[in-house]
Amino acid sequence: MKITSLTVQEKHKDRCNIFVDGEFYKGITIETAMQFHLKVGLEIDEKTLKEIIAEGEKKDALNKAINYISKALKTKSQVKTYLLKKEFSLDAVWYAIDKLKEYGYIDDKVYATRYIESTSKTQGKKLSAYKLMSKGVKKEDIECAYEQANINSKEDAYNLAVKRLRNKEINTETLSKTYRYLLGRGFSYDEVDEALSKIKEDL
Fold first, then answer.
1. Percent of the chain having pLDDT more than 90?
2. pLDDT score at 203
3. How far is 7 from 144, CA to CA, in rounded Å?
4. N or C end of the chain: smaller count of CB under 10 Å?
5. Are the CB atoms for 144 and 109 separated by under 8 Å?
6. Backbone angles phi, psi at 150, to 5 degrees
7. Sequence-ordered alpha helix ranges (H) in 45-188
């Protein structure tokens, strides 16, 4: 096998197309091509070329993942889904994820803790857990996050109930609607009962 052409891609100036024996073979980053001294006229066996391309894909996946999480903290599952949509191989995807975990850039427990603390005033544990699991966070990581999170669920439920009832007449109907609302926001029956009992006491 001989590399017969290396051309910069029109839409991605940091990548180039490799042509082997006159036919398109694969796209690769220019950085990887330079790192492994790929050039026109180079004789190379297919196994070596595939290994070089795989190595380049891993680095490309890692760079894409770093750029993705730089905008906002992400879960492991979100990063995996993002990279697979970018059509990276599973090997490249797991390489990137493992590196990000090694660097401390991905930590589902930290993600869950921050999410819980940032949403605790508007939603309870059940709703938060449901949303976190939909983002791929494991149940045990969510439980651990709740143990570490600096929140007061009973107080949050009470404050949300007060906000809900503000400028409304407090009667059986409005209390009943608030009760259902708090349950719908993921607070437990005990938290809701205590919140509404306190409101009645304050009357």
1. 70
2. 64
3. 51
4. C
5. yes
6. -95, 80
7. 46-70, 76-85, 90-103, 108-119, 125-134, 139-148, 153-165, 172-184
Q: Which residues is 16 bridged to in the sheet?
A: 8, 28
Q: How far apart are CA 112 and CA 114, in angstroms?
A: 6
CA distances from 87 to 14, 68, 169 (A): 18, 15, 57
Residue 74: name the closest of 43, 118, 39, 105 by CA. Answer: 105
Whether residue 202 has pLDDT greater than 80: no
Distance between CA 165 and CA 182 in Å, rounded? Answer: 12
Q: What is the pLDDT of residues 32-50, one digit of tens each?
A: 889 888 889 888 888 999 9
Model confidence, pTM: 0.80
Mean pLDDT, the chain, integer: 92
As given in the structure block, the two tokens for residue 158 are 């009470």
Beta strand 23-29 with 15-20: parallel, antiparallel or unpaired? antiparallel
β-strand partners of 15: 29
Q: Which residue, 86, 20, 12, is CA-closest to 50?
A: 20
